């Protein structure tokens, strides 16, 4: 399933232009979804062209223009994106939705005087919530010789992207450890072509403390989902 979640993006205008947005929309991967944009006043027109544009912004990227003058597709934009509408009511339709279409979509209108902008986040789902597969990697022998130990937890092919990763050392949460020299960090989720996410978390500690550890566990949690965990025993590592 796929859902569209409204995300307010902000308004820049010199007159009051109210933009309304749709409620939740759902579609299967490969289906069709329509995002509506309605302004409280007609948009500016010239030569019968309505000055309204649609933009797409994927995570970590700059906005990309998809459609201008309400229905003109920019060169190179796939034909599955179509825009239509006039006066104060416009739509962007995506037919045959692909995983890479997950993004924030902006509707930008120009009025005289003033302009208005609103945005909606499109979350593409290939199915229900998917539990990621976890892999825990031990520190390298080279790093241990330098007095440091870094463990990495790889979480692959999960959905949605808000699974939390945490560490347990010998059964206790690493965040509750009395050692201030332990550090945790997590990388941003990377959207794969199949619509699922992969990300990672690292746990850093001094090598002498790592040598006292019996086991470390990486755990992934998300809402009411059953947690996923993977445990690495230090005595199973070739270099401990």
Automatic annotation (TrEMBL):
Cited InterPro entries: Ig-like_dom, Ig-like_dom_sf, Ig-like_fold, Ig_C1-set, Ig_sub, Ig_V-set, IgV_Light_Chain
Coiled-coil residue spans: none
Alphabetized Pfam families for the sequence: C1-set, V-set
Comp. bias regions, Low complexity: 173-187
Renumbered residue ranges of the record's region Disordered: 173-194, 218-240
Biased composition (Basic and acidic residues): 231-240
Domain Ig-like: 8-111, 132-229
Compositional bias per record (Polar residues), positions renumbered to this chain: 218-229
Protein name per the record: Ig-like domain-containing protein
Annotated source species: Sparus aurata
């Amino acid at each position: 399933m796929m859902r569209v979640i409204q995300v307010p993006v902000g308004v820049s205008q010199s007159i009051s232009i109210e933009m309304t947005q749709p409620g939740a929309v759902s579609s299967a991967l490969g289906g069709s979804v329509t995002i509506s944009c309605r302004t409280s006043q007609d948009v500016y027109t010239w030569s019968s062209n309505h000055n309204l544009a649609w933009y797409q912004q994927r995570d970590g990227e700059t906005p990309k223009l998809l459609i201008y003058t309400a229905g003109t597709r920019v060169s190179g934009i796939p034909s599955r994106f179509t825009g239509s509408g006039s006066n104060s009511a416009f739509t962007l339709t995506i037919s045959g939705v692909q995983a890479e279409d997950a993004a924030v979509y902006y509707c930008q209108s120009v009025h005289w005087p003033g302009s208005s902008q609103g945005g909606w986040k499109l979350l593409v789902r290939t199915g229900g919530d998917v539990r990621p597969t976890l892999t825990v990697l031990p520190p390298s022998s080279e790093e241990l010789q330098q007095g440091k130990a870094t463990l990495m937890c790889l979480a692959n092919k999960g959905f949605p992207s808000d699974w939390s990763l945490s560490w347990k050392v010998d059964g206790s949460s690493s965040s509750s450890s009395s050692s201030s020299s332990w550090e945790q960090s997590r990388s941003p989720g990377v959207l794969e072509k199949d619509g699922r996410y992969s990300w990672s978390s690292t746990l850093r500690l001094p090598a002498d403390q790592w040598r006292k550890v019996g086991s470390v566990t990486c755990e992934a949690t998300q809402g009411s989902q059953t947690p996923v965990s993977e445990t690495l025993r230090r005595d199973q590592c070739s270099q401990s």
